[in-house]
Amino acid sequence: MAALAATAGGVLGPPAAAESQTPSGQVEFPTRCLPPREAGLPAAEGPTTARITVDDPAPKVGDTVTVTYQVTRTPAVNPVADELPADVLTPAGRVLLGGAQSGEVTVVGAQRNDPVGAGAALPAVTMTGTFTVTAPGAITLAPGGYTLHTSHLLDLDTGCAVTGAPVSGRITASPLPRANLRSLALGAAYGKPGAGVEVTGAGFAPGAAVTVAGRAGAAETADRVAARADGRGEVRAHLPVTDRATTAVVAYEGPAWSAQEGSGPAAYTVLAPAPPRAAAQEVTALVVDPGALSMTQTGASLTLGALPYGSGGAAPGRIGTVTVKDARGGVRGWTLTGKVTAFTGAGGAAVPGASLSWTPTCTAAPGSAGRCAAGSAGPVGPEGAVLASVPDGAAAGGTFTIDAAVTLTLPAYTPPGAYRAVLTLTLS
């Protein structure tokens, strides 16, 4: 059987005024269907009645939505002079996107129909296709042109052009959650009452006003200083610690600390003054030459599994193994984050970075003092996600091995070719 012909006609852009629309989403609009030249029939003009539905009316950016285009009545007629047998009709068409996301969705139906008498109208058809949500907000779906292909005696295409099709379906897409990448490091893990500590923060909004404060459990102490993030979102401040209740230091944007706009607590100990002793000597032992926090990774690139054209699905892979060594001493932990750009292919084809997800693992080498926690499984995207971390605590040093299985989810009929993106890992 010959391949389906391209859909004839159609209108792009915002739909014109609807002729009729029901609460169920069924719409009616003018259509002009051109029979194949071999049929010797005139063009058929009249209304098409259709309905567009989706499997998910409230997706997130990066999700794949399945669209169903049902044509329940068409002016197109049987293009052959005798009866059209069962299961020789194959439909294909387009659904037009508007609002927050523009473009069109190609939909195709199964080769299925009841017998159609000579000169009778062609029967109802159902077509499906998918698209990836790339922008948050309200997205409209309107019927576009469609083609009815028959394969009895000859391969014949009846192309139906649509004018003024109204919106038949709507979805509202929500943005991906933003990862909180704010972090804090202290120049010292302890000090006497009244001593100051140097505070360094990263991941804040550029130019934002930031509060650096002492903490005792979930409550803030009297220790507090104001700072401002620079153009790269970095913060530097000197915090005098006078409240003996202070056990940690936090930094945050806004009027109060929150998990969305604040850093995690960095542990700090206020040393109590030693009581006077008669005829006593203080003995001090030192562990000298602390090392650094470093990261290495095996391999400079990763290649995902291939998918056959038309099928869509998940292309699996695995990042190069990352080894983090923390020889700094003290109680400071660390966070390893990653973010990925959009995937670009030949001819300007693109796949959003949010289509890449990972499932991280993190293992501490024997003898390591820190507790290694893998990041949550889920999308990476351009906003970034945590791959692994060690929290601030009594001890945070050691050697840690981090891996992650990755999956790139592609919709069906993604244009063939190699798609490339850049995955950036940052240790802080």
Task: Itemize the secondary structure elements and their pairings.
Layout: E1 20-21, E2 27-34, E3 44-54, E4 64-73, E5 89-99, E6 103-108, E7 125-132, E8 137-152, E9 154-162, E10 169-173, E11 183-186, E12 190-191, E13 196-202, E14 209-216, E15 219-228, E16 235-240, E17 248-253, E18 266-267, E19 269-270, E20 293-297, E21 313-318, E22 322-326, E23 334-340, E24 343-344, E25 350-351, E26 356-364, E27 373-374, E28 378-379, E29 385-390, E30 398-410, E31 423-427
Parallel strand pairs: 12-19
Antiparallel strand pairs: 1-2, 2-3, 2-9, 3-4, 4-7, 5-6, 5-8, 8-9, 8-10, 11-13, 13-16, 14-15, 14-17, 17-18, 20-22, 21-30, 22-30, 23-29, 23-31, 24-25, 26-28, 26-30, 27-29
Write up this protein.
It comes from Streptomyces vinaceus. This is Beta-xylosidase. Residues 1-29 are annotated as: Disordered. It is built from no helices and 31 strands. Strands 1, 2, 3, 4, 5, 6, 7, 8, 9 and 10 form a ten-stranded antiparallel β-sheet that branches. Strands 20, 21, 22, 26, 28 and 30 form a six-stranded antiparallel β-sheet that branches. It is an all-beta fold. It is elongated. It has three domains: 20-173, Immunoglobulin-like (Sandwich), CATH 2.60.40; 183-270, Neocarzinostatin-like (Immunoglobulin-like, Sandwich), CATH 2.60.40.230; 293-427, Immunoglobulin-like (Sandwich), CATH 2.60.40.
